[in-house]
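Quick one, T. Sequence first:
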Amino acid sequence: MIHKIVLPTPFAVGDVNAFLVKGDALSLVDAGPKTPEAYEALKYGLKEAGYTFNDIEQVILTHHHPDHAGWIDAFDRADILGHAYNNLWLKRDEAFFQYHDSFYLNCLIEEGVPEEYFFWVKKMKRSVELMGERTLDVKLVEGDALAGHPGWTVLETPGHAQSHIVLWNERTGEMIGGDLVLGKVSSNPLIEPPLDREQGRSRSLLQYNDSLNRLLTLPVNIIYGGHGEEVRNAHPLIEQRFEKQRQRALKVLGMMDGGSRTIFELTRELFPAVYEEELGLTLSETIGQTDYLVHEGLVLETRDEGGILHYEQA
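Structure tokens:
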């Protein structure tokens, strides 16, 4: 049994979904943001299904973003499960937060962003106060069986978040998908510091595309997504998203007709009305396109003496 509980968020994305999963154990997948409004909605949703907070035996996080990882603190008797990356945030790891800021400052320099915008480094930090303050009891990795739910396994699906996982049941074709595939919109492949600092910046859009490509190899009947309605016929939707993605990238390729461009220059041209108020998201989107074009061999990436990356048609 899968029962959806819709929770309000203070974010532009709107409501977020949590899922009650009944098997040999009673589990909750995702827990909304840590706001009073989400708490009341969660309490009501559990009561409607005949349960209380104390009945939940485990809470599984699809990823660490605050609209999903908030009210884990409300489940005293439950184990918390998720990808190891969640702990960097749930622990409020100060060393990681310092690295987080230096990582983003380095990204802004590489992207050719003028110094007057460097205050965005602080704004890149997720709303930590809306996340839970418990750490994971169980770290999940690719291929793990989900305790208490025979037939359900964990798939690692990075891209939208470095911590992203989905739960998959091959027998029924059901997937609890977090923000991997949403019905109305494509998820943003966000630039985030890697778990392994030696790896350097993750190519989030390429990761995200790899995660979506995996779904094309699976007999998916229904995806219970983190926002909006359930997704059926996921394969055609994913193919459409890939085509739109390619068209967006080719538009960026066309912007290089006049010669070499920086990420900031491309972002300003792609998002003239919103780049200043949404600099983090718009830079992430632009970097995704250039990563894609470099990967496809359509664009060359070079670095100048100041460490700024430049992109030109191959």
